[in-house]
Design goal:
Helices cover 32% and strands 12% of the residues. By secondary structure, it is α/β, with parallel strands linked by helices. It is globular, with a radius of gyration of 24 Å.
């Protein structure tokens, strides 16, 4: 009996060693394969089994393009214009006929700082810094800074009553994970999608990140934490000769030499599979090496934009230095979902550039000019290729900007952070088109009614992908009810 026990223990050690080695080589990109081969396990609890890699119910979408603008764009100068700001400019909130939003019972509830309970409160109304018009058959009002997106308004769905609780820039991670910086970290929304679904293209990772991380402390926005590293987003360079770090063959190794190495590794693993027929990790490892080899060709091809027509490149603004960077990332996102990547997280702008404490007019005028045409180009291109029906596009930021002028240090022309009410929009698979859901008050301060905490966005994304977040629970990792959120069903087509 002792000998049998030792043999069993040795087999377990060998299995663990093989798993650790293989995961270290290509684990980030191979989640779907390992999961499909039964290696991915968060617990040995017999009452629980991991996702099957298939939707739990009929999905509306196959892929997600998640566009995030870092720094906090103003809902007022983009998608939720408020004429009352011009009418009462220069007056305090108390001098208007409206309820003072600073005295609202939800004010402190939706404002939680890491270093203090609330930020300084400003009450002097700052007027709109740009005009706006109604567009499309839906007549939705859009800022004059966004003429290209305005031309797509009948394909977009605006949620104007979002709120969050972090009034500092850790809110960038919060909108992706659902948790405040002072709370336990959770996996990102992209990781949950990746964890719940199998791959549509076994030559490419399921979760790719373009333009990020914008800083080392924003990696939580696409990390997977306790789900396992293989479900994290993988940064991909666009416009680079080496788009996937460590994903290309070394210059001193010939393709034939590398192929021979993979074949030898495959033979050794197949011999091990004969010796240990019940070791599913060995079979997964064989497939993982094969995928790593295929990725060397598939990844560069997927982000090679030179093969696109001149007209398509111009649609995204690649012919203009001002829009080229964002345009490249948006076009690459289309190419990736076209090839079956499940979740593409795009940062079209650098870290914090929308943070307009001062000179909002100059800031937003400059930044909108860089991203407006590329984002609209993505929507138009997806639609004309028939991909918008199977792709969910989410456009968001970490919080909005206050309707009052920020007077800190004598400021006269900017807006402070504003978690109490802001706007995001959706487009594509299973979403109403040319539609507005929710609102903020007359001054654009508070989300009306209960509004939507940011995990409602997550629940909406999971639902459109055919997943129920409450059924993705992992043993030993109890999530809060607010972590799951509620799908915003009113916006479903």
């Amino acid at each position: 009996m002792a000998a049998a026990a030792n043999r069993h223990f040795s087999a377990l050690q060998r299995r663990t060693f093989l798993s650790d080695c293989g995961m270290g080589i290509t684990g980030l990109a191979l989640g779907s394969l390992l999961q499909q081969d039964g290696v991915s396990r968060a617990s040995e609890d017999a009452a629980w089994s991991p996702p099957t890699g298939k939707p739990m119910f009929e999905p509306a979408a196959k892929s997600v393009v998640w566009i995030f603008l870092s720094g906090g764009y103003s809902q007022l100068e983009t998608f939720d214009p408020k004429p009352a700001l011009n009418k009462y400019a220069g007056k305090t909130f108390q001098e208007t006929p409206f309820e003072d939003p600073l005295k609202s019972p939800v004010h402190d509830k939706r404002s939680r700082s890491v270093i203090e309970k609330v930020r300084e409160k400003y009450a002097k109304i700052y007027p709109m810094q740009i005009g706006w018009k109604k567009h499309g058959e839906s007549g939705i009002e859009i800022s004059d800074w966004l003429p290209h997106m305005a031309s797509c308004v009948d394909d977009m769905c605006f949620v104007r009553n979002m709120w969050t609780t972090d009034n500092d820039h850790a809110a960038e991670n919060q909108i992706h994970t659902g948790r405040h910086k002072l709370d336990e970290t959770q996996p990102s929304v992209g990781a949950w999608v990746t964890y719940g679904l199998g791959s549509l293209n076994e030559n490419l990772p399921q979760f790719l990140v373009l333009g990020g991380p914008t800083r080392s402390d924003t990696r939580a926005s696409f990390d997977s934490y306790y789900l396992g590293q293989k479900y994290s987003g993988i940064p991909l360079g666009v416009g680079s000769k080496n788009p996937l770090p460590y994903g290309s063959r070394s210059a001193d190794i010939l393709a034939e030499e590398q192929r021979n190495e993979f074949e030898l590794g495959g033979k050794l693993n197949r011999l091990a599979a004969v010796e240990y027929p019940e070791d599913e990790s060995v079979r997964a490892r064989i497939r993982s090496y094969e995928l790593a080899f295929r990725m060397q060709t598939a990844v560069p091809e997927a982000v090679s934009l030179d093969s696109e027509t001149r007209e398509t490149q111009q649609l995204y603004g690649l012919d203009d230095a001002n829009t080229k960077v964002a345009g490249q990332r948006m076009l690459a996102a289309r190419r990736l979902v076209e090839r079956g990547v499940r979740f593409v997280h795009v940062y079209p702008s650098p870290y914090g550039v929308w943070d307009s404490h001062k000179a909002l007019r100059m800031n937003h005028g400059t930044q909108t000019a860089k991203i407006d045409k590329p984002v609209a180009g993505l929507l138009k291109d997806l639609k004309r290729r028939g991909l918008l029906d199977s792709t969910l596009v989410v456009f968001c930021t970490e919080f909005g900007r206050t309707p009052a002028v920020e007077e800190r240090s004598g400021g006269t022309d900017g807006r402070d952070h504003h978690p109490h009410g802001f706007t995001v929009w959706f487009a594509g698979a299973g979403i109403k088109r040319g539609y507005i859901h929710g609102s903020t008050d007359e001054l654009g301060f508070h989300a009306d009614g209960d509004g939507h905490y940011i995990t409602d966005i997550h629940a909406t994304v999971l639902n459109r992908m055919g997943l129920d977040g409450r059924r993705l629970e992992v043993p030993g990792r109890k999530r809060l009810d607010i972590d799951h959120g509620q799908p915003i069903t009113d916006i479903f087509a």
